Amino acid sequence: MSALQPENYRSQLLVDMRGDFIDWKKRRAGENGWLVKILQKHGCTMIFDASLGDGADSISLLHSGFQVTSNDLDPLFIAKAQENAQKENMQLTVTQYDRREIDKHFSPQSFDAVCCLGNSLTYLFGREDQLTALRNFHTLLKHG
Predict the structure, then answer these.
(1) 1 within a domain of the structure (yes/no)
(2) Apex CA 114: angle with CA 123 and CA 119, to 5°?
(3) Burial class for 118, CB neighbours closer than 10 Å (0-12, 13-18, 19+)
């Protein structure tokens, strides 16, 4: 981490610790396949992961056979997710768009499902920004 600027050092530590905090295997076991079951029940194949983070959800969905487009603004998390995907022999498709403007980057009805798991929506602090993101997610969803 010696190449990091001092202001990025704490951010990199948080990114590196996330996997330990989340514990991918325990999380998946605790979920008991609920997300995959829901997506399969509704015939979803094309998934937009609105908050890639360290890649846990996108990689899990890829392992389950879904086509996933992952999004995150934070280059440190994107790099960590790419590293984690490589360890899992998976290839991520990553975009780096602001969720408040995501509708400008994809055609309407581009995805069967949009995932924004955990507390990711709260990274947008204002209620109006959160509602804008949710409206944009709705625009991305195929009808039905």
Answers:
(1) no
(2) 25
(3) middle
Tokens, residue 12? 């990199």
Rg (CA), the chain: 15
The whole-model pTM stands at 0.83
Q: Domain containing 126 — which CATH number?
A: 3.40.50.150
| Containing structural domain, residue 104 | 6-140
**How many domains are contained in the chain?**
1
What does each of the 144 residues of the chain score in pLDDT, given as a tens digit? Answer: 345 454 554 566 666 666 665 666 776 677 778 899 999 999 999 999 999 989 999 999 999 999 999 999 989 999 999 999 999 999 999 999 999 999 999 999 999 999 998 778 877 889 999 999 999 999 999 998
Give the Cα separation of 139 and 93 in Å (integer).
Answer: 20
Asked whether residue 106 is assigned to any structural domain, the reply reads yes
